[in-house]
Write a structure and sequence with these properties.
The protein is an alpha+beta fold and 324 residues long. The protein contains eight helices and 16 strands. The relative contact order is 0.12.
């Protein structure tokens, strides 16, 4: 069933680590520009001021100011999009039921699950936040003079010093105490690409910090550039084509719905030395986006670069609890 969403408003809560598989000849979505031109493809990422569309000619980025409407060719996509429109208006209950209905169409929709998780946490804590705001206002008058900024609160409460970046907010410093308890999985320079299901590209640092301060379980994704020095497969592995790459990187890889991920790590291997962990997504390799790469192409690049350094951009999911 095809549904048209008119008047593309600012999108929220888009999951940065949901990556579709390879794109075939049949394209599901259509973006209609204000001039009437139709661009067919698959909508991959939706940011606040632009969208990324995969087409037969490759990926295209289209500004929202140039878009009149979009046509989604699946009911669950239309439901998620309408849920996001309701969220931007503050209609949390309506959005909740839309995401819930989308999950009935497709129980594997990670985006819908992320939104439901966020809304539950928001609704459960909203009344408590209102009480706290009221107490602080009465205690401090206007509440502006001594009120901490979201960035300062994240530093004090989570042990993470945030700073603006070219596209993503980055972690500038990890405090020694690190109340979040996830310091071992994070490094200074890591870029925050999504928080609670919302993509953070081009977002203000205070806005990202504000989302991180929601009480309860916090889920976010970071991006990091690493440069491991690969090993040699060795003569004994020359005939084992499928296994050679494992010796070179010290890891096993697997193609999943979200892309090529690290399935296993060899202690002391090149990937472990570079800080790569089991479960990490290989987002880019030597500057190439791996979104549509088959596993054989990724391992082929690895084999060609044995005994050399290779640049990899990884993405990692982080989860921790924050008390309200």
């Amino acid at each position: 069933m095809r549904r048209i969403i008119v008047g593309m408003s600012v999108a929220s809560f888009i999951c940065a680590f949901s990556f579709p598989g390879a794109i075939g000849e049949s394209y599901a979505d259509t973006v209609i520009l204000k001039g009437g031109k139709r661009v067919k493809g698959l909508i991959l990422d939706e940011f606040r001021d632009r969208i990324t569309l995969s087409t037969a000619e490759g990926e295209k980025t289209i500004k929202r100011s140039d878009i009149r409407s979009a046509v989604y060719d699946s009911e669950e996509k239309a439901l998620i999009r309408e849920g996001e429109n309701q969220l931007t208006k503050g209609h949390y209950i309506k959005a909740y039921y839309l995401y819930e209905k989308a999950l009935r169409f497709n129980p594997d929709l990670e985006r819908a699950r992320e939104r439901l998780h966020y809304i539950r946490g928001y609704l459960e804590t909203e009344a408590r936040r209102d009480v706290i705001r009221s107490i602080v206002t009465r205690r401090e008058g206007s509440g502006n003079a001594g009120e901490k900024t979201p960035v300062r609160r994240v530093a004090d409460e989570l042990g993470l010093v945030l700073a603006p970046g070219a596209k993503y907010v980055r972690i500038e410093k990890i405090m020694g105490s690190n109340p979040s308890g996830r310091g071992a999985e994070l490094r200074p320079g890591d870029r925050i690409v999504a928080v609670c299901g919302e993509m953070t590209a081009y977002m203000d640092v205070d806005e990202v910090a504000g989302i991180l301060l929601v009480p309860g379980e916090i889920r976010f994704a970071i991006e990091r550039t690493v440069v491991p020095e690969l090993s040699s497969a060795g003569a004994l592995f020359d005939g084992l084509l499928f296994s050679r790459y494992k010796k070179i990187v010290g890891a096993g890889l697997k193609l999943r719905n979200r892309g090529v991920t690290v399935n296993s790590i060899t202690p002391g291997g090149p990937f472990e030395a570079a800080g790569i962990r089991k479960g990490d997504l290989l987002h880019r390799i030597n500057g190439k986006n791996t979104r549509y790469m088959p596993l054989s192409e990724v391992t082929g690049i690895i084999k060609k670069n044995q005994n050399k350094k290779i640049e990899i951009v990884i993405r990692r999911d982080i989860t921790f609890w924050r008390k309200g």
